[in-house]
Amino acid sequence: MALRPWQVTFKIFRQKNGEKPHYDPFVQEVDPDESVLEVIERIWAFKDRSLTYRHACHHSACGACGMRVNGSEKLTCITPVRAVTRQGGTVVVEPLRNFAVVSDLVVNMSPFYQAMERVHYASIIPVAGAPLQHGIRPEKGRSSEVEAGLLRLSDCLECGLCVSACPTALTSRDYLGPAVMAAIQVQKGQLTSDLVETADSHQGVWGCHSAYECTAVCPSFVEPAWRIMDLRGELIKRGLAGLFHRREAAE
Ligand code: FES
Q1: Which candidate in 27, 86, 129, 159 could, as Cys together with 66 as Cys, close a disulfide (CB 3.0–4.6 Å)?
Q2: Which CATH fold would you assign to the domain 6-107?
Q3: Is the CB–ligand 1 distance for residue 55 below 6 Å?
Q4: pTM to 2 decimals?
């Protein structure tokens, strides 16, 4: 028996050209199993062509569709409507926090991507012959190396959900954020002095308040909070090793 559609009100954050923000309500008939992104696309197609939002892959691989849905960070392409509301309910859709709004649901991710680049995060890793992790597979046709199995996408999608959920990023503009710290921890075996310096600061691991909100919202199980704690341990170990080394040299 076909499921009867639900009637749901989508309240969507709107802001253009730095004007005062507001929310536009759209009453929609929805299939509870369709994704929040599909409903947003229908609103754009049939009700308001000026609505702006980001998406690409539709299968949780590109990280482009991150938004706040009823106050929680989600990849909207894999969030079914039934997971966030009920028949007759309301879904509030907002852009990610801790990023500047460009237009409606689109935020400026450039500073975040630049910070990831600064810590040498590679979103594609050469791993000839190594098994893929977490079931994440390179997109077919991306390059001949990918097709030959010589590269794989690393786990972090650079979607920014962790940055949006982070209470420290909300109060401290200097804090580099969970994804950047996780990207440094991934390189733990070969930390350069500039990475150690970046991590060993209040912009880095010592700025984190251990709220674990980043880990709660990460869609690809990177566990940034655990990585930050691990990186703290590594920095303490290095600090103590340096101290003993200096003492021995002085004796
Ligand atoms: S559209 Fe690519 S992750 Fe959602």
Answers
A1: 159
A2: Ubiquitin-like (UB roll) (3.10.20)
A3: yes
A4: 0.85
